[in-house]
Amino acid sequence: MPSAPKWLFDAVDLIITKLSSITISNVQLLSASLKRISFAGDFSKINFPVGAYIDFRVNATDARRYTVSNVDIEKGILEIIVHLHGNGPGSNFMNGLRAGDVVDLNRPRSERNYYAKSAERLLIFGDETSLGLACAFLPELKKKKHQFLYYLELDEENWNIPEQLGLENFVVFPKNGYFKNETWLDQLAIFQSKAWQEAHYVLTGNASSAQAFKKAIKRNTKGKVFLHGYWLAGKKGL
């Protein structure tokens, strides 16, 4: 529900479970278009599966969803990574948050099973909007000793961000339309490897790129695909 009448959001706010008096402890600009925001509070009674998210009401009639990128229960720290793009309601809201602000945070939730725990190999694909999920995956992938890869389609100003975030086993691709090119996709090295024929693929971010990648996976492997497009050019929210 990215957009709704004010009265409906007001009604939802009255019944939705919130975490009160959460303090924004740090706001870090990772690049001109990426920001990491840390919240301090008591998160000990909340379950945080990979893909847990928080819905933010960013103005009277709009809401935006952000994945929890990291949580430290003992230290009481929760983090999200936000993509700032243009003057959209989500970007404007996130740009207005400052360290020291006290907020009532909507309770983190999860409705999608991103993580296939039984899979031997996983590939996570996405763009700037997927970096929070990429960070959330990493501890589980290493703890359970999965073989994993990240394929990240990023603007040039963000090519160094995966390393800055501590991600591993990643390949960065420029946003030049390759992930909409069937011939190029079919030649990806991962499709030439027998080891990845039955892998689990998690595709998020740009819905057009993710859909095209899914078709290539189906053409070239027997792998299983989870797809959740986070945005689509020309469409307000997904």
Which bin fits the share of residues in helices? 10-25%
Spell out the CATH superfamily of the largest domain: Nucleotide-binding domain of ferredoxin-NADP reductase (FNR) module
Tally of DSSP β-strands: 11
Cα(first) to Cα(last) distance is 8 Å
Strand adjacency order, main sheet: 3-4-5-2-1-6
Described by its quaternary structure, the protein is: single chain
Largest sheet: 6 strands, antiparallel
CATH class of the largest domain: Alpha Beta
Radius of gyration: 18 Å
- What CATH architecture label of the largest domain applies? 3-Layer(aba) Sandwich
Rounded mean pLDDT score: 92
Number of structural units classed as domains: 2
Per the CATH scheme, the topology name of the largest domain is Rossmann fold
Order of helices and strands: HEEEEEHEEHEHEHEHE
Model regions low in confidence, pLDDT < 50 over at least 5 residues: none
Question: Which structural class fits the helix and strand makeup?
Answer: alpha/beta
The portion of residues forming beta strands comes to 25-35%
Q: Label the overall shape.
A: globular
Tally the helices: what do you get?
6
Organism: Pedobacter ureilyticus
Domain FAD-binding FR-type: 17-115
Protein name: FAD-binding oxidoreductase
InterPro entries: Cbr1-like_FAD-bd_dom (IPR008333), FAD-bd_FR_type (IPR017927), Riboflavin_synthase-like_b-brl (IPR017938), SIP_fam (IPR039374)
